[in-house]
Amino acid sequence: MPGTTVWKRSRSRIVGVVAAAVGASLALAACGSTKDTGAASTGGGGTGNVGVVLPLLTSPFWQSYNDYVPKMAKSEGVDALKTVNSNSDPSQQITDINNELNQGVKGLVVAPLDSAAIQAGLDQAERKGVPVVAVDVAPDKGKVAMVVRADNVAYGEKACEYLGAHVTSGKVVQIMGDLASVNGRDRSEAFRSCVKKKYPKLKVLEIPAKWESDTAASKLDTLLNANPDIKGIYMQAGGVYLAPTLQTLKSKSMLKAAGQKGHIVIVSNDGIPQEFDAIRKGQIDATVSQPADTYAKYGMYYIKAAMEGKTFKPGPTDHDSTIVKLPSGILEDQLPAPLVTKDNVDDPKLWGNTVK
C-alpha cells in the first residue's frame, strides 16, 4: 500500500466476485537485469493503450503515485490512459479492470486492494491475452508479468529494530493494515516475530485497522485509555494513520516532542511529506520511504516489456533492486525502501522531498 487501502465491504461480497480458476505461472527467461531481457516478441510489440487502476486516492501516498504515473509513462514510452480510482472497493476494482479490458487496452498496471479478490480481474485479463503488472500488493494467485513492490517484510523488521533500539522495555503498539492484503500480513508478522526474537522485554499490543483512519483513531483511543504507559507505536501506513494517531495523542496530552520526557517513539511506513515534517518537528521518529516514484516508473517499464513479450528471472537488477520468486511462482521486483530519520530527512533524493 501503498501501500494503503480502505476496505469497508463485507468479506462475503468479495468472495462472490473471485473466480475459482488458478492463474498460470510466469515462464522464466532472460536475466534479472532490466537491460537484458528475452527477445521473444508477442502481442502488440509494446504498443497500444495501457490502463492504470488505483486502489484509492484518499492517501497522500496514492495521490503522489497518481501524479507520477503520467510522467513516468511518458519517460518510458507508454501510452497510459487516465487513471481509474477503485475508491477502496475490491469488487469495484474488478469492475474497473473489466471496463479497461472492454476498452481494448493492451496492458494493465494495477495496485490490488485485496490479494485474493484480485484474481478474478487477473483471470479476465489472461483470457483476453492482456499482460498485467501489479504495483504495491502481490496477488495470492493469478497471472502477472511482474509485481513492483518493496520488501514489506523489511518494513516490519526495520520498524521493530528502530523501536527496539530506542525503547528498552514496556508496551509498544502496531497499528496494522488490512490482513486481507499481503502487505498488511507481511508487515504485521515481521514486526511481531522480530520483537519476539530480538526484544523480548517489549510487549506488542495490536490494532487491526484495515487501512482505515477512523478505525485507527478510535481503537488507539480505547487502547491508550487502558494502557497509558505506551512507549512506542508502529504505524503501518503513514498516509492514513499519521494524522489520526497524532491527533489522538494530542487530545490526551501524550504528544511530546522527541527529547522531552514522556515522548512516545513512533515509526511509520510510506515516506510522504507529512511524515517528513512530523520527523522534523520531533512528533515521530522515523519512517520507511515506500517509493511512489519508482513504483510508477517500473510499473510502466515492466508493462511495456510484457507487451513486447519480454520475460525475466530472479536476480539483481540494474536499478539497485532484486527480482525474487514468490511462493506463488510470481516474480517480484523488490525496490529499495530506505529508513528515514532526523539524520537524513532532508535528503533531496527522497521522493517525499520532491513533491509539495
Tell me about this structure.
By secondary structure, the protein is α/β, with parallel strands linked by helices. Helix content is 36%, strand content 19%. The protein contains ten helices and 15 strands. It has helices spanning 11-15, 60-76, 90-102, 119-127, 152-166, 182-198, 213-226, 238-251, 273-281, 292-307; strands at residues 49-54, 79-80, 84-85, 107-110, 132-135, 146-150, 170-176, 202-208, 230-235, 265-270, 286-289, 315-316, 322-325, 331-335, 339-340. The strands form two sheets. Strands 1, 2, 3, 4, 5, 6, 12, 13 and 14 form a nine-stranded mixed sheet that branches. Strands 8-7-9-10-11-15 form a six-stranded mixed sheet, sandwiched between helices. Helix 2 (60-76) packs across helix 10 (292-307) and helix 5 runs parallel beside helix 6. The longest helix has 17 residues, at 60-76. The chain is elongated. The two termini are 20 Å apart. Residues 1-44 have low confidence and may be disordered.
What structural class should be given to the helix and strand makeup? alpha/beta
pLDDT average, as an integer? 89
Q: What is the CA-CA span between the terminal residues?
A: 20 Å
Number of discrete helical segments: 10
Q: SSE order, as H and E?
A: HEHEEHEHEEHEHEHEHEHEHEEEE
Biggest β-sheet, characterized? 9 strands, mixed
As a percent range, the share of helical residues equals 25-40%
Give the overall form: elongated
Task: Give the number of DSSP strands.
Answer: 15
> Could you tell me the radius of gyration in angstroms?
20 Å
List unreliable stretches of 5+ residues: 1-44
Q: What is the beta-strand fraction?
A: 15-25%
